[in-house]
Amino acid sequence: MSREATDLASDAMELDISPQGTPRNPVLVIALDGWAGESPERIARVAEALAGSLRLSIGVLRGPASPRLEPLLRALTLTLAEDAASSPMIVDHPDPEAAVRHLTEAVRRNPQASVALGRLLRQTSVPDTTAALGAEAAFYSMLLAGKEFRRWLAERGGPKPVNFPDRPLVRLDRDVDLLSVTLDHPERRNALSAPLREQLLEALRLAELDDSIERVLLRGAGPVFCSGGDLDEFGTAVDVVAAYQVRLERGPWRVVDRLGERVSAQVHGACIGAGIELSAFAHRLVAAPDTYFRLPEIAMGLVPGAGGTVSVPRRIGRWRAAWMMLTGDRIDTGTALRWGLVDAIE
Question: What residues act catalytically?
């Protein structure tokens, strides 16, 4: 038995929480190369313990991923390696140790939200979209009352008034059986504000109710597709239970998922937060060469709340999704295409 296997006792996987409710050991790093010689039984036992742990378990591989390691790779939050070998369970990075330090530092700033995300991604990796979105809405709403979000909100100066134009924020164009739905608030970088969300929901419901609409195309006006939620509205929710119900019931991403193969999306420029969360539900997602993607919610003390913990893992796997969400790193179109986050670059 390797030293790594001997040292990795089950108690090392337990989350140590301070009296103030802060996780003190949120990240567990495991060197995987020495595990290839372990017995399948030992690997299975450790994989089961990892899958049940609240800690974020990060594997590091220097050599090739042996087939024997698959139960561990599957159980871990994610694995870092120089060569991903086309596995959605592995995030490729030229310097895995540096990547571990980078991820650990991001988690250290907001350990509560990070630990919540790790558990949430295991709960949203199910075929039942409604159940998965319900879990996401519950986690997001819970974190709205957390100290990490309150700290971020205080540093930002709290909610700010938003002046909306006296015109629709979502533009509809009909061409025979095609309905083009355009986010049309470029002054706010098409941020998913409450008014824009409601108008988008009604537009998508129109497509859902009208059988003569066979195709729906999502686009964004101006230099970016969507910069995420409107940050000036953050902190206005005073009832987290109501926030949960609104997020689950009024989320347009639910309708995009129900429309299935009828929906395609064309994204460009910034595709941040809700922008990629929503568009990832589309059956076909095409990105312009200048597009970049980010999921920055952990830095705000939150988790993605516009369906992203469901839609993004369905495209790239929960392991690479965890990397994007925990670090908040920008992903370019080349990586997005290679991972399967987008279907084409045009």
Answer: 277, 297
